[in-house]
From TrEMBL:
All copies of domain Carbohydrate kinase PfkB, residue ranges: 59-319
Keywords: Kinase, Transferase
Family listed: Belongs to the carbohydrate kinase PfkB family.
Organism field: Kaistia soli DSM 19436
Protein name per the record: Sugar or nucleoside kinase, ribokinase family
Ranges annotated as spanning the membrane: none
Keyword Ribonucleoprotein in annotation: no
Length: 334
């Protein structure tokens, strides 16, 4: 088996984030659940946009953010996601290519569903409340999978949010089969407790039947996954189900879980948290790139914590500095 050219291929919902600061009272007025992610239709998306204060636009989407982090670390990466041939779609395609990621998926023609967008409200404590219209994302399908690209990638990484569209599920299974057929690894992030509640059965089967080699979750998602209030019990259950997993616990760092044991890795200290958008996505960047580079799992987790710490010090879901420079300053052999 030849060595793969690409470190990571990210597959997910291509979403342009529209971010604005908001007070807690605003969330109450708008009947929004703080810290949640919900899907909305186009009308609700437009209503929330009209109610927002000054906003910035930034290309996002969970897997897209992870790919951006890997590119900033110096990794070779690519992205699979669906946008429309419209203004936001052009912004997204430009941003992915500008960071050095390969992004060849053909856009939907003009007149169809528009490019996805997420209205994100950031409260003073740095928490984000997301309201996402998926639009063109629903049209991602198996024809968008480049078999040669998947086979030439060490790790193909999927976001759980894809499970909302049946055609995207077909694309997932096609890509996973190709990856395993080429001797590569497949990774999934649970994405949100919202996803876990809806698709627990599917995600459980994927983990237990070996479709997923590397699982990502945070503590809330993992407890929801195993339907327990005990985080320790959830970790032990995961140990029995997974080949490899990384579970984040905010300022307490993360846990690396394998059948051989559970190891905790401290978080990188942050003086002021500005915006938690993208924290889990960037953690996955460091961890996946570390694994692809052959790091020990605890070192990969520490790299994940380092790059996650950078992204929460500013507004926006993608790095504001070179993560490669940052990692080298901390002694990582990149």
């Amino acid at each position: 088996m030849t060595d793969p050219h690409y470190h990571v291929l990210g597959m997910g919902n291509a979403i342009v984030d529209i971010l604005a600061r908001a007070e807690d009272d605003f969330l109450v007025e708008q009947k929004l659940s703080k810290g949640s992610m919900r899907l909305v239709d186009m009308d609700e998306s437009q209503r929330l946009y009209a109610a927002m204060g000054p906003a910035i636009e930034a290309s996002g989407g969970s897997a897209g953010n992870t790919v951006a982090g890997i590119a900033s670390l110096g990794g070779r990466c690519s992205y699979v996601g669906k946008v429309a041939d419209d203004q936001l779609g052009a912004v997204y395609r430009h941003d992915m290519r500008a960071i050095g990621a390969r992004f060849d998926v053909a856009p939907l023609p003009t007149g169809g569903l528009p490019t996805a967008r997420s209205m994100i409200f950031i409260t003073p404590d740095g928490e984000r409340t997301m309201n996402t219209y998926l639009g063109a994302c629903h049209m991602l399908g198996p024809d968008d999978i480049d078999a040669a690209l998947v086979a030439d990638t060490a790790i193909t990484y999927f976001e759980g949010f894809l499970w909302d569209a049946p055609s995207a599920r077909e694309a997932f299974f096609k890509a996973a089969d190709i990856a395993h057929g080429a001797g590569r690894q497949v990774s999934l992030t649970l994405s949100d407790a919202f996803c876990v509640d809806r698709f627990r059965g599917d995600f459980t089967r994927l983990l237990r039947d070996g479709t997923i080699d590397i699982l990502f979750a945070n503590d809330a998602e993992l407890k929801s996954f195993y339907q327990t209030s005990s985080f320790g019990a959830a970790l032990e259950a995961l140990r029995g189900d997974c080949r490899m997993a990384a579970v984040t616990v905010g300022p307490d760092g993360s846990f690396v879980v394998t059948p051989d044991g559970i190891r905790q890795v401290p978080a990188t200290p942050v003086e002021t948290v500005v915006d938690t958008t993208g924290a889990g996505d960037l953690y996955a960047s460091g961890f996946l790139y570390g694994v692809a580079c052959g790091f020990a799992l605890t070192d990969a987790a520490a790299l994940g914590s380092l790059v996650a710490a950078e992204v929460i010090t500013h507004i926006g879901p993608r790095p504001a500095v070179s993560l490669l420079d940052l990692a080298r300053q901390q002694g990582y052999p990149l």
